[in-house]
Write a structure and sequence with these properties.
200 residues, alpha+beta, Immunoglobulin-like, elongated
Length: 200
Amino acid sequence: MKKIFRLLFCLLAISSLAFSFQQFAGTINLDVRNGSSSSTNYNWLLNDEPEPITVEVYTGCDEAGPCAFNNFVTVSPTTLTIPPSSEASVLVTATIPSNYNFAEGNITGNLYARKQQAASGQVSIQLQMSKRVNVNVYEDAAILLKNETNATTAPPTAQQQTPIDLIPFAIILTLLAIIAFLATKTLFKHEQAEKKQAKK
């Protein structure tokens, strides 16, 4: 019975975190000429919790092992403290060397935001967000000039203002929590019935 209650509590805690720590939808796109850099201040994370949260922010690739994306893209700050009911942005910078090998094509990777919180006792819950970053590398200055207006800092678009990335995940966790609760309730009734039968 204790194990079931602990599982129920953990599921409810994860579901609550999933709804409170969210990100805005969209992809980060940067246009950069070789031998230069480009930055954008991207409105990314949302804290719906009643208390401040602290997250670790870093760059990386989908696959394990060495990540070339980290050689060209940086993010600042690497640690964010987001006040209650507030949003947070990060500065993403792509720097392309003058001797960049264009045969490698454009550069793609991810930004990650990780939040870790103790739910109960020794149980620790880790919640991680990821955001796709596309760096389009150009050699022609005329093409870069045409796209620079789109690469500068801009307020979030209407699409970004919809924190939808974790909604399906949170719904699944909520359903699991409900199932666990109903199972616990049924087991409790069954134990009570056995006790009454034993007394007879």
